[in-house]
């Protein structure tokens, strides 16, 4: 949990802070090397497509799992336990004879929705706090940011585990726990973005020309602060899958036999030496999805900059 | 956020956000308008430190209280978990006696005041699960986690530099591209899986390092590596980006044209730019590490704050959890305070530019 | 051995079960020595590296049932009486002789006079009396609990320095066996003064016993070092070693990750590991290493059907569950040959066992018929329904039991075939502790208990002990099935040995007839060891003894 939290707070972020498109006050900010690529424009780069393709496949698994496999996700054939990958069982079978590929396919809906819930919680709560703090400023800002400090000060693991204990065990609960742990990151980012945008000349100008507070925030501040936040959200998506799997490792994830990816990796770890496919193959799927999410995050941020 | 560094005293607030300094373009540092202008510089020296300390204490108190409320809200309690376990085979009367002797059914406010008074006196009480004094638990575990965290962080920084350096200077483009995706790969691997695979390969298969009763240094190798990999990733990203940005700056070409060695120029500027965000992140990461090496500690069977926390959560061992929260919050507050204070010293530009108009 | 010793319900009474015990041990390679074991004279010296699954949480003997606790207590304390793990007979240890009155309400022990605790103090009648006063009565103010094995304890009398008498308020036929268990490990007077806290991790060096080992170092949560006591000279007569332990030191290291524990053994970094999971046995055996699987000789690993729940109050539903579970498949798929299929609520290696396998036959058609008969008809989703209620039951994941979750997962798959929806409860400790005490939340309770005494069946099912059937509803404190209560009481209060066995068998039959319990398998403790570790042995329910271990290297 915490190890992944480390990341969630940080990576890739420089671009995020870059000026947002349409910020008139910052004309010189376009990245020199980003410009030419943009002009090359029409051509779609393979490296930008693959991540989307990966996500598309996984989303298809989540939406229509029956199309990809003929086995059931929880029905096992005890006689076929612990078989290695083969034509019949692409990813092999587990200790109770369940087809691992099927479980990965059916698990995608749990893992994706888990990650989605986690990101949404962080995004909504965090951005809410951040935007209010950044827009209102003053005392409210101080108070809200101290609350965020407290969130950061309490060990993430403790926070997540307590939330799970409070809410009960389950995919959604684990996701909410991970989401709450990321509230602070979203809050700080969105606040700094809002503060930055607010201080830009055109927002000052909007206020000066008689815009009401809410109107200005809604029309100018929010849209211009959003790119960075969305980039963080895409990044969080991958991180959340990992964080949920770490909760599974500690025994606080989705209750089996939910075919959740993290849980599958965590459950299979005792077989690392004897049945490598149980952790490795679902692990590779997770790596692929997380890498794709990171990639997409980076692209969003770069496009935002360009 | 970093842009605010010179002016807004709450620099670390920006920490998890991009720390990258805005060196690119003109007037990069601090595009934002300082809230109150240059007056803060004076405040920094006079009112700033005491104010931060005051805020720190408030954060600590809120964290303590929030943890208490949170723990009270959890279903069941430590006594129930410890003594109503059917394996002990205790009768209901015996359990009731023990509950009374622990005072767990006292009014919540009284329990809070009691615990709070204890903490203020430095008395953290006893673990309900094991009966060990909390002070002793923490005192034994903390140095272990500290060593692990410190070593992990140092290795992560070294790794990050290696990745960044190679990805900027490797002779083939494809190597550079491949190296650039290393940080992303590093953050995509579940830590517990990495730990287990490292043990299986380097200890059990190859027999290079022992994981059972190893020497003090030997025992650190694999856990530190496990811990360093995911931390190295964001640092490497900051460095790589910093390198990119420095390359694109006109002054680099000017300096190069004047005959300075390119790598000297590059690294001097990269370091200058990357130090602040790395330091900021160090603050956050380190605070997290103190409370959070649980996965690494579990996999490698090391004792440490993470293990204690996990076990205490599992048994709702309130006294231990309260102490852990306080410890982590203290570490967090202190490190951030330190980072805050070091910021302007590290980069005089920040101080100088305060108040400059944008 | 006086007439009283012989007169007590010893060997003769257990004769019937004895044969079973021995055959069972032989069949699974249990606690007898393995194949490639070194022979020759024991070598003194060396350090044994022993990997534990979890850290210990207390050394207070009555609370030492948790295996990591028991593994330490067994080696640092001695007991009054030695229960020979092979014969299950009682032999002198700290007590040279004992006498039990007619109705088992008074026990008199004569003690050795040459035994000292590791702090130098004498192990005399005074301290023995103090030990049992605490274990029999407890002390809630110090959070020190009563020993589950000691029932009806009233008082002690110190007759002289080496004679002590214990009085009971009601017959306590299980007391002699109780004095032989680790829950009755004798500790010094200074140790007895401590509170629960003083027995906790970090205080191991202050827990003073008279055993062959002493805790010499401890790192909370990670390791405990046991050092051999040079002057140890009071082992039970039937043990080969009569002097100090052969190894100088035992390094007990906590290694929670299964894969790491097994890998450490196969790569030679550890000498002995506890808790080899069934799926890892092949790996250990494949590396040419030893597997020990001593039986726990008590109530089998089983599912208690809480008949106070409205769905399970119908015996036909309970019978259908029994008939609908293919226990053989569970054992074959999830476990190994070291986990024999259960044939009664008690293990075949337990005292008083009676073979009742006919009650537990797998017959899915009969199961379906029974459910039809009981009015549960198949719904559209394959789950049976009755009056709009679906046939959904909840079972707890028994975290301490090997592969509980996997076994239950397979069982839920089997039950799905007959239209029963079995949910597995996995929850945090607080929620879990509450849920398992409520038949409305957990209808099927997965558990086991090991103890080599007839009392064990009472421990598992009696209202004020583990109460796994929730015969006593914790919420209302009412007893649902008084007949079961009476039968269980009879086991623990009858002085005559043969009658006790008959009473235990009556309980087993009653449980089978009423379909209260689904026994799964006879649970072993599985250890893996290097082939050059000799003399590794176990007390009667599978807790390790390092006393005779020596390293042939």
Structure at a glance:
The complex is a heterotrimer of chains A (306), B (358) and C (553). Chain A has 306 residues and is mainly α.
Can you walk through the features of this model?
The complex is a heterotrimer of chains A (306), B (358) and C (553). Chain A is mainly α. Chain A has a single domain, classed as MetI-like fold (Orthogonal Bundle). Chain A contains 13 helices and no strands. Chain A has helices at 2-8, 13-16, 34-40, 46-63, 100-136, 138-153, 156-167, 171-181, 183-198, 201-208, 213-249, 261-268, 277-305. The longest helix of chain A is centred in the middle third of the chain and has 37 residues, at 100-136. Chain B has 2 domains: 42-128 and 316-358, no CATH class; 146-314, MetI-like fold (Orthogonal Bundle), CATH 1.10.3720. Helix content of chain B is 71%, strand content 0%. Chain B is built from 15 helices and no strands. Chain B has helices spanning 39-73, 78-83, 92-102, 108-121, 134-169, 173-180, 182-188, 191-205, 218-247, 250-257, 262-292, 294-300, 305-314, 318-346, 348-353. The longest helix of chain B has 36 residues, at 134-169. The two termini of chain B are 15 Å apart. Chain C contains 16 helices and 25 strands. In chain C, the strands form 8 sheets. In chain C, strands 8-9-10-1-11-21-12 form a 7-stranded mixed beta sheet, with helices on both faces. In chain C, helix 9 (315-324) packs antiparallel against helix 11, helix 10 (327-334) packs antiparallel against helix 12 (404-417) and helix 15 (482-493) packs antiparallel against helix 16. The chains are: A mainly alpha (306), B mainly alpha (358), C alpha+beta (553). Chains A and B meet through helix 1, helix 2, helix 6, helix 7 and helix 9 of A and helix 1, helix 7, helix 8, helix 9 and helix 11 of B.
